[in-house]
UniProtKB/TrEMBL annotation:
Residues 24-201 form the DUF3786 domain. InterPro entries: DUF3786 (IPR024264). It comes from Clostridium thailandense. It comes from the Bacteria. This is DUF3786 domain-containing protein.
Length: 214
């Protein structure tokens, strides 16, 4: 993803919110999988098994249940992602196959490497398979037959990402990968998909740390 300073992010967010406000809210709700309350003029959108309230047309975001840990924490990049999702989502038909990031349409145009992101996943969970499963359970992930442990995680209603983990053993180091349904490029730009993947792994690791403290 391009290197932006904070002001660039703020400008990008402001522009996205202006585009967000131009869309018909009922149509956005239908395409995004969110629920829209026309009286309150707000959406309810699920991100990683947590419901967020998004005001319309302003685009402000807050956690619906304030007893839960806020995964967005007023992070402007995460706000950009959720508003961009509303702006671009199409409710595309799933192709029901998994591909690497570099195999996504348009991804080759971006100088993005998933190596650092996936390395963080295997470094933290490489000898903690049970913890990885507990994290998956906490966010309603679905087990899939990839690697030693594969988790299909619904990040947004139209976007699922697969995190694949190979556990360390006496001969091999731990390894991991990220897979996508090719339809994801109909919901977000490739550079936003890369950012979403990085943030997802950060959140999965953070949830794992929270579980270890319990």
């Amino acid at each position: 993803m391009k290197n932006y300073n904070k002001n660039n992010y703020e400008l990008c967010c402001e522009n996205l919110c202006l585009e967000f406000a131009k869309h018909d809210p009922e149509e956005m709700a239908n395409k995004s999988g969110a629920k829209y309350d026309s009286e309150k003029k707000e959406f309810t959108l699920t991100y990683l098994n947590r419901d967020y309230i998004i005001s319309y047309p302003q685009g402000s975001i807050e956690l619906k249940d304030d007893t839960q840990r806020d995964l967005f924490r007023n992070d402007i990049m995460k706000k950009i992602l959720i508003i961009s999702y509303f702006h671009r989502c199409t409710k595309a038909t799933l192709q029901n196959k998994w591909v690497l990031y570099r195999e996504l349409d348009g991804a080759s145009l971006y100088n993005v490497s998933s190596g650092f992101t996936t390395n963080k996943l295997s470094q933290f969970f490489g000898d903690k398979g049970d913890l990885f499963l507990k994290v998956g359970h906490s966010i309603n992930a679905e087990k899939i037959p990839f690697g030693d442990i594969g988790l299909k995680i619904t990040v947004f209603p139209n976007i699922s990402i697969a995190l694949i983990l190979w556990l360390a053993d006496d001969e091999l180091e731990a390894n991991s990968n990220i897979l996508y349904d090719p339809s994801v490029v109909k919901e977000l730009l490739p550079e936003d998909i890369a950012l979403l993947s990085s943030l997802l792994i950060d959140e999965v690791i953070e949830i794992g740390k929270q579980i270890l403290k319990e």
